[in-house]
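Each field is set out underneath.
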Amino acid sequence: MKHLEETPWFICDKEDENYCAYVDTDSNYFNAEPLLLHLYPNFESFPDKEKDDKLEGVALAYQDIITEYYNKLAKECFNVSTHKLEMKTECVIRSAYFRNTRRYAQWITKQEGIEKEILDIKGLEFQKTNFPPILGNFFNDILQQILKGANHNEILIQIKDFKSKILEGEIPFTKLGNPTAVKKLEKYQGAKPRAGEMFTEILKPLSQAKIDDRGKLIRPQRQLGAPAPVRAAIRYNDLLRIWQLDKKHNLMTNADKVKWIYLKENPYKIEALAFMENDLPEKIKDFLEKYADRKKVFETILLNKLEGLFGDLGWSLDLNPYLKNLKYFEI
């Protein structure tokens, strides 16, 4: 089990094992498996429902022990005889994945004594609005399978199959684009192309001048270039003009809901291009079909999230389909 923080020295000695998996504002999550195996040596052979019942029994017992201790805490620390401090068992979790503070997934099977079947997933990266839904749904699906006991090899096979569908074009490029809203075009959009030029200038704005702690003037500095979604929108507008499509199709403007995708090497040297599914010229669609960088989409959007998940689980993530063949060669 991955621990987000080591046990502080003032809680227990360094050599003691940390059973606290996660702490939130008003909740504590503990790994009860060692205690359950101690109390019931054949615990692993129990049916799932019986395991949940035994776990709940342990939680309720400790709930009462801690609540009783609050009497001593209130008297010795706050010098009061009556108080409203109480420890309460919130839920029974059959399995969970804690990525970071307020970023977790848990399979809840009991909540306040009532049997439930809840997959509670909060704050993980794939849930962000700028994450392509088809990739987010895939990540969500394998995460749920892992929580319910799927093994390393089962998940790896599915990832390889999904990667193959992306690279071989079985999944339309329109589903692989990053959803976003066009922002700050005026900040980064420079001069229109002049005679002999094709593309709009993309600016690197100056920072504001400021005074440092010693009263010295810090002159404006060139900032980083435009974010990829902004560059992608500017280049889409450029292609509309170059191909004379701007009379039939709308240029992208601030607040438009669009998608953008990385491109492979292409005649126009465009690194990324935005598009609108509800207003997609056939010529730009063909261009994207040919040059959308599906490999980069997989590696920059989905693969790094999978690497984080597999690393936390202590699993290897090798997607080389020819790896097994290497054992037949001697070096």
About this structure: The first strand starts at residue 20 and ends at 23.
